[in-house]
Amino acid sequence: NNVFVIDTKDMKVVGELRELAEGERIYAARFVGDMLFLVTFRRVDPLFAIDLSTPTKPRVIGYVKIPGYSEYLHSVAPGFLLGIGMDNSVGKPVLKISLFNVTDPKNMEEIAKIEIPYGYTPALYDHHAVTIDLDRGMLFVPIAYRWRTIGVAEILLANKSLDLVGIAMHSDALRALYIGNELFTISPHSIKVFDIATLSLLSEIPLELRQQ
After folding, report:
1. pLDDT tens-digit profile of 187-204?
2. Which residue numbers in the chain have pLDDT < 50?
3. Dist. CA 171–CA 157, nearest whole Å
4. C-alpha–C-alpha distance, residues 163 and 108, integer Å
5. For residues 163 and 155, is the Cβ–Cβ distance under 8 A?
6. Where does the chain have alpha helices with state H?
7. Half-sphere CA count of 157, side-chain side, radius 13 A
8. Residue partners of 166: CB distance under 8 A and separation at least 6
9. Helix (H, G, I), strand (E, B), or coil: what is residue 54?
10. DSSP state, 170?
């Protein structure tokens, strides 16, 4: 695994970091300011903090190792990073949503997590499946159980914690969005509208597929 810094003016490599995490694979990356957060995986999940403030000399300044790996990383507040991935270390697939405190990149830590045995989410391969409302401190992500999507999970990000509020039940849901106090979930077959506070179903709009 290598990290290269390229000057986009002339497309020349100005800095590099080689042979990072030998024998592992890169699964996710996210830039936050001058910092590159990088996830690799083989048996555990090393989350690396790489300082790019001096582009010609990228350097690892910290890392944390936890079971599993993250396929998706997102900055949710200054100093806090959300990770969505899987943990297969317990002998069964477990969907894992983690919150990392990266305020001090030299001493990062996982401070909260939600684990769903036999769970899955399209967010592992499609970042459009993740919806974040930072004003409310909420995360919306489609959730599958034993590979069948059951709905969209509503997760509270407040108080530096992760709390599963509930699931807006909608089979095969792939997307979610919010307008005011309403949550819209979207599948190939229908759009459902829920009250964002109670997750009670307000209405449903069938989607008909017409053949040309």
Report:
1. 999 999 999 999 999 999
2. none
3. 25
4. 21
5. yes
6. none
7. 24
8. 153, 154, 199
9. coil
10. -
